[in-house]
């Protein structure tokens, strides 16, 4: 849709595809002239096309094919390529989502042109600037015109940074739209438990891919050791869909996967949702997985030193344990012993509609902002 484009949606990685799918669906429903620019940050089928196919999204209008590289090689190449598309399309609004290098590139390229920028999932803060994601989300927030904050807490962080109140909108997180839209389908259609020979309520799901963990041999090794020790003590199977970054690091560091952990391929969204919904416990360093487990009612243990999703901890769904092996065992034990039944803090599943309403796009569905 390059003629008369109103909205250009920039995305590049697995979590952005999943969390922007509800926004793309809402654009389709409202017959908004939109285009999708895929930076090509993720390109392997398991991180990319599998989600376009399963979520029935139209193929991107542009694939910039930027691929992997150092932080600045990747981000710089994306900025140049995105700018060229935006100069050609002249959209009124550019939407980016989250905290990856694709988000930073989209926000910077669009922020310097004559269009508005909307940052979906604005205001998250880990307060840890050693993480590339923290740098990306802070800069994207400050380049944006609309900050679509998932929660009041995220909106508060933006206000503390001096952002005007009328540029901050609490919309909930679009991941709730996606989970609500696909949870039942996953339960009906996914055969993943049979395929992996797992029993619902009798296994743990592990994901670990963040640079601060898997690019550091000691941290990665300690993380695997802690999870293996917990598996052994609790007698629970552990399945680990291995992200390509982690796969590469395992080989480069010559790390052996402990027998207690079964590595599997990265999963498609329905199979992954099914695993998350039926796991006894999820251990993860993913941002999106902390949210999804909280929404689905599965206890989560976060293998990081901090989180930009403190709401999950506050409601009792998540605990932050780091990567020390003893800490993982203790944290996982405590998480299992606790009752679940918390409230989902991330909204009602109408975030995508709210975002389009606030941006004045298409006929408004009757949803107000989450808070005033
Ligand atoms: C990126 C995000 C991270 C997010 C993750 C989602 C940044 C800084 N990081 O991390 O916040 O949690 O996406 O999954 O933007 N690779 C492949 N195939 C691919 C893509 C990557 O094999 O399709 C391998 C390459 O060896 C590459 C490595 O993974 O060097 C890392 O990829 P990169 O895009 O730099 O970051 P992610 O770890 O995917
Ligand atoms: N996910 C998936 N298959 C997997 C692992 C994760 O579909 O094997 C989905 C998961 O449901 C969530 C998203 O990927 O929506 C999270 O992405 P990731 O952990 O790669 O990135 P982060 O959220 O940490 O940026």
From TrEMBL:
<feature type="domain" description="UDP-N-acetylglucosamine 2-epimerase">
    <location>
        <begin position="27"/>
        <end position="358"/>
    </location>
</feature>
<protein>
    <submittedName>
        <fullName>UDP-N-acetylglucosamine 2-epimerase</fullName>
    </submittedName>
</protein>
<dbReference type="Pfam" id="PF02350">
    <property type="entry name" value="Epimerase_2"/>
</dbReference>
<dbReference type="InterPro" id="IPR003331">
    <property type="entry name" value="UDP_GlcNAc_Epimerase_2_dom"/>
</dbReference>
<dbReference type="InterPro" id="IPR029767">
    <property type="entry name" value="WecB-like"/>
</dbReference>
